Amino acid sequence: MRKLLSLTLALSMSGGAIADTCMVSPTSKEQVSGRFGKFREGGAANFGSGNAKPHMHDGLDFSTSGQTAPLYATSAGTVTWAKLRGSAGNTVIIKRDNGQSAVYYHLSYIAVKEGDKVQAGQEIGRAGSTGMQPGGAVHLHFIYGVPNADDARAKTFSADANKNPTFNPAQLPNAISKQSTAFNYATDPSPYFCKTFPIQNDGLYPVLGSDTMAQYNKLFGAAPPMGVPPSTQFDPVQVAAANGDALQAASKGATSMASVLNDSDGYGSLPSPPIGDYETMSPAEMMSTEAMRRFADSEWNKSITQVSSRALWVDYLRAQGVSAQLNAAIRQKKERMEALLALYTSQKLAAKRQQVDAARERAQRADVQRAIQ
């Protein structure tokens, strides 16, 4: 029930944009040459990456046609990194005001320094191939980082996914990377941009689409109005059911959670549980009181068909309060029982210890008497 309530709250908060403001393009060369999430098996399959190990591609590669083209800040923010970063080469990281980060790898030139405030569209450097193996292509590797793992969207797929006759995006494993100290959790950047970018034909068009948002929607689904996107916090079945309810509500004219949770479809409220009185009741008395209120009260049974949806949600929240009271009372009773058992065990041990001590004293006296004789 607690998860259902959390899911409801998530539904009510998901109506805004996925980021405070959508991002502009990081380069005028707006063709993606490397998909987010593609699994690279190592060696030649890594396309000259300085990371020679098998790994998931954690960003979007923008082809600059071999040119050291200018790169731009995708939004306003503060430069938190502007220097070499291992196999990433020259790197710039810009932290947005919302805590999310835009990350630029392999730059040939850095035009900003750490601590600089930048604006969307401001040049921050030029594309390059630093950090890559000799002969690596000049391009931009763009990563987007979010501070919360629940907000990260990452699934990995094979470069040969199109050869799988039963390819099902829903069955792909989630591949949330370990938290980076520099930019937190890498996520598919696609929905954060103001525009969709075409993807260079890599044979995956039939299964993942030909542009960045086509792939994102295939892998993660597009949440309907008043819906909630997938989250590690919720079971996928719960998310699907909630989005189904959102679609049904929209088909009946609902436009927001506020329009659904109001008093226009009914009136009044249900009898309240005596939550304050529960503090002096045993768990059995609480359950009996709640059962009488819900199942034996004629007023409650009559009102349940007449009150508004908002009143039903209020009653649901009150029921959560009752559940919390019951759980607390049961936990306290268990603690008392455990304390009594501990006391009983301690007393039994003390009695046994006295018996053992008495037996030892008797044995010692017997030994002394035999020695005297």
Automatic annotation (TrEMBL):
Residues covered by the M23ase beta-sheet core domain: 56-142
Keywords of this entry: Coiled coil, Signal
Domain of life per record: Bacteria
Cleavable signal peptide: 1-19
Molecular function as annotated in GO: metalloendopeptidase activity
Coiled coil start-end: 323-369
PANTHER family the UniProt entry points to: L-ALA--D-GLU ENDOPEPTIDASE (PTHR21666:SF289), PEPTIDASE-RELATED (PTHR21666)
Record-given protein name: M23 family metallopeptidase
